[in-house]
Amino acid sequence: MPRYEHVVSVDEQGMRLDALLATLEGVVSRSAAVKLIEQGLATLNGEATTKKRIVVAGDTLAYLVSPERPRELVAEPIFLDIRHEDEGLIVLSKQAGLVCHPSQGHESGTLVNALIAHCGYENLAQLQGEDRPGIVHRLDKDTTGLMLVAKRDDVGAALQDAIRLKAIDRRYLALVHGYIAPNTGLIDAPLARGQADRQRMVIANGAGSRSSVTTFTVLERFAAGRFDDGYTLIECKLFTGRTHQIRAHLDYIGHACVGDTLYGSQTRPKAQLGLTRQFLHSYRLEFTHPLTGQTLNFSDPLPEDLQAALAQITPSSMGHTL
Questions:
Q1: How many of the other CB atoms lie within 10 Å of CB of 58?
Q2: What is the rounded distance in angstroms from the CA atom of residue 76 to the CA atom of residue 109?
Q3: Which of 15, 83, 156, 304 is the most exposed, having the fewest neighbouring CB atoms within 10 Å of its CB?
Q4: Sign of CA dihedral 184, 169, 300, 252
Q5: Average pLDDT value for residue range 246-275
């Protein structure tokens, strides 16, 4: 059973023990943190304590975490829009509503279940864990577009290294609320899971935060109308790959994705252009194939619902920037 230690920082002082523990490595939720404390598997300064204990800087938190038992993964005949496949990898376009891998609340019906049906479990890389065969990187449930899947461990390792070295070019199209004046921008803001709402990622500099960098280029601006404050179509490029990175970063600068029900305000329903999911699409992917050395380049047009939303505001276009 893995053992972890964490020394409470000045920024963490004043937090409840269970809230802090939930942000640390190996602890998947606040309820899991409470369970560790109640079972005596988490101690503060070498002593058992309660979940409501307020921590102070310099306290040492030690805890044991049992590895989760891998879920039983089954093959499911779910549609896969495959754009390229060879002995080492797959490039596919993920549809909206498809979760990448099993998790709490999504034990089946995921991309992983579809990949097992297509390839067989034994023909998928397992570097991300036994319950995430084939997964190299992820897209949010309702984010659409291009993804990489590894069929071999050596290919998966090479692709993950390429992502870390920023050698894979991943670009997204996003339609956001408001008028973005500069033609280009860089958002360098660390992200951590929110304390009040564990589904949201927030800008934070304390424990559990991770460096996150996104750049964007304005493609087209749209004038404000009766029910909105205008829109901007942008291309985003990832330099890190954190959970909800683009969505959280755009909300942070005051330009949330249209249709995003988690980030940004939903007080103006007509401004959402009929969307019930975020206008975010992985439309370009370029990388060097680990086995052949060939440069592969893929593009993916907007799906119909995003095209329809964009068509509604085309008459208010202020022109393309590129």
A1: 11
A2: 7
A3: 304
A4: negative
A5: 92
CA–CA separation, 119 and 87 (whole Å):
11
DSSP string for 205-267? -STT-B--EEEEEEEEEE---TT-S-EEEEEEEESS--TTHHHHHHHHTT-PBTT-SSSS--S
Q: Which two tokens stand for residue 235?
A: 């291309």
140 is catalytic: yes
What's the gap between Cα 26 and its chain centre? 18
Residue 244 pLDDT more than 90? yes
For residue 119, what are its two tokens?
Answer: 């390839």
List 140, 228, 251, 300, catalytic entry:
140
> 22-79 pLDDT, tens per residue?
888 878 677 778 888 988 899 999 998 899 899 999 999 999 986 554 467 899 999 9
**What does the DSSP 8-state code read for residue 131?**
T
Place of tokens 């920024």: 11
The CA distance from 298 to 84, in Å, is 9
Q: Which residues of 180-198 are buried (b: 16+ CB within 10 A; e: fewer)?
A: beeeebebebbbbbebeee
Residue 113: in which H helix or E strand, if any? helix 111-119
